[in-house]
Amino acid sequence: MNLTALLNFYPLEALGSFWSDFMSTSSGSDTLFRLYGFPVLHSASPPFHNLIFDLQGQGRHYSTFSTSKIIPDMLKELHSDVFGGCSVTMPIKGAIIPYLDDIEPESKATGAVNTIVKVPAQPESGGIKLIGTNTDILGVKNALLRSLRLQHSGENISSQDRYPPGAGSAVVYGGGATSRSAIYALSSMGLHPIYVVNRDADEVKQVQNIFPELVSRGSLIHLRTPQEVEEHVVQSNPILMVVGAIPAVKPVTMEERMVYTVASHIFNMPYDPPSSYNPSGVTGLLPLPSKRLFLEMAYKPRITPMLKVAAAHGWEPIEGIEAMIEQGYAQQRMWAAGNASATIGSDPSILGTFIERMARDLVLSMEDVIVKEVEVDLAAEMQAAPLVETPSPTFRILPTRK
């Protein structure tokens, strides 16, 4: 039963707390899950996560906490017995890192944490650790893999599969935090090189500084003009995937218009996947897309100008909301398993097909969240909380819950 059928069978008034609790406060006895950042009241995360929690029936609740800094009240929640896990958004994705026990490789590579997971510590300590990770990477990767699976429905495509050397390359439009997540995701799929289309050379340099290993082997190349596309791309591995990570606004300056010119040039490049790509049937290899994939990370509006350009040139368009859904799945899987690894975050068996389908239907059916009140930054008049240098049982390591 999809969401529409559910709501037709059970009117909203009859669903009671099942529906109204999506955006309401916790009962007080629930395990607490949060979205920390500012602003956050516009987020679709509370209805998404609370639907999953309600379907699981485990007494968990997800709500927002508006803060632009790491403040003491936030830390008290993170280290309380009722805390179950959280999402972290701007402007504190980087600021939260020193307050955690450890971070996963995805956060180390991108310098950002958007998810905190309570993970059991060593058995002898009898406690837990707060581990940070970046599920935005899995949002990108798993949205691309989902589209690839739809193209190759008869194949068993694993999240661990990769492209072999020389199979294909990728492009990222942009240079901010989302671009870094996209670069990490595409590299983890075996795509090489990765081209970065950006009008700002300094911004690209900052991205390259984060990925020195990719730069050292010539796998992170800045493209600014159609001429550079011809110089670097035509004789290289075919472009299989593109991720757009720029705002969906009309380009105004000449430099901004050039990004769209370069994008159109890339979208217009011919593509003819070989029929004998993997004749020996080697396992663990990703299949070539029958239509090249374009993932647009911007999702307001849902259909962006860049998405239209890609589709018009024969690319498979993937809306940004798909990446948002996939990173939400990854968070839920990690919280449920008490494990922040990317492998756990990509395992659909943890939540199950029904719950994931219901959550997807909810998000796809939602309109933008209308904020009907002035959002107050709880950290507006406060200093950031001090760091604790040495872990202590009362602050860094909590006893296990009974």
From TrEMBL:
Query: Which part of the chain is the Shikimate dehydrogenase substrate binding N-terminal domain?
Result: 35-116
Lineage of origin? Eukaryota, Fungi, Dikarya, Basidiomycota, Agaricomycotina
Against Gene3D superfamilies, the record matches this protein to: Leucine Dehydrogenase, chain A, domain 1, NAD(P)-binding Rossmann-like Domain
Mind listing the GO molecular function terms for this protein? shikimate 3-dehydrogenase (NADP+) activity
Q: Which domain of life is it from?
A: Eukaryota
An example GO biological process term is:
shikimate metabolic process
Q: What is this protein called?
A: Shikimate dehydrogenase substrate binding N-terminal domain-containing protein
Extract the InterPro entries matched here: Aminoacid_DH-like_N_sf, NAD(P)-bd_dom_sf, Shikimate_DH-bd_N, Shikimate_DH_fam
